[in-house]
Amino acid sequence: MSPQAVLSRDAEEFLSYLAVERGRAPASISAYRRDLAAYEQFLSDHDLALSQADAAVVESYVALLSASKRPSSTARALAAVRGLHRFCVDERGASLDPTDGVATPRIPQAIPKALSEEQVELLLSAVIGDDPRALRDRAILETLYATGMRISELAGLRLGDLDMTKAMALAYGKGSKERLVPIGRQAVRALEAWLGPGGRPALAPERWARRADAEAVFISTRAKKMSRQAVWQVVRKAALKVKLEDLVSPHVLRHSCATHLLEHGADIRVVQELLGHATITTTQVYTKVSPELLRRVYEGAHPRALVGRR
User: Where residue 55 sits, what CATH number does that domain have?
Assistant: First the structure.
């Protein structure tokens, strides 16, 4: 179906509404146009006008899409169809919305992508040198992997949130919820080097511009509290150095921390507490990453898992 296929007047006005009043990007409008063109072609093939579509028709269309498209593509197409019919009710005087009650296809939860332990080691070794920036960047990478913090949580760390003696940090998660997270020995060493004379103090001004800058654990070379975006650039730069840029995302070290803990036998509820997940369901997605772990635990625990066991 051509992106320039002729649409009904209602569909064209709906697209204009999305572009002008909702400010949708041109790429989004083009995608909606393709989806609506396919839907209206389906209606035409069944000798139906847009106003004649009912729930059974929409469900038939969704079933047709589901047979040949991924759930995410089908869900997107249904969103376009649903938006058109609701627009017709709200703006064009249609008496009913046939998409009411039509279920959106369930999109399988994506399995988080984690680096292997070898890849993590490679990433952590990417920062070379003992200048203040290198000490800071090494501490950022080590702390992200050691604690499983979100980048925003790490960027928000204050000096008072660190207890280097106990190797613990206070993280502020979603909804301003506090949680204590342990810091591994390598991360402690990296933080101590960054907070030592050759690191953060070397960048500190005689007079701080803001209190938030003075209290921040991680500051820029201009003595400003680092933003989430600035922390992410540190991760990105290190990934580029070791050619892992295609595997690294803002959450990849968090995913890797959780996955590796579980692979080494950590209790899932402990990992839930570490990551600050509100429910165990969120944490359980990490158990899908390693079928080998499930097999290993099963064979080690079930009395009849292995031949010859008594």
Answer: 1.10.150.130
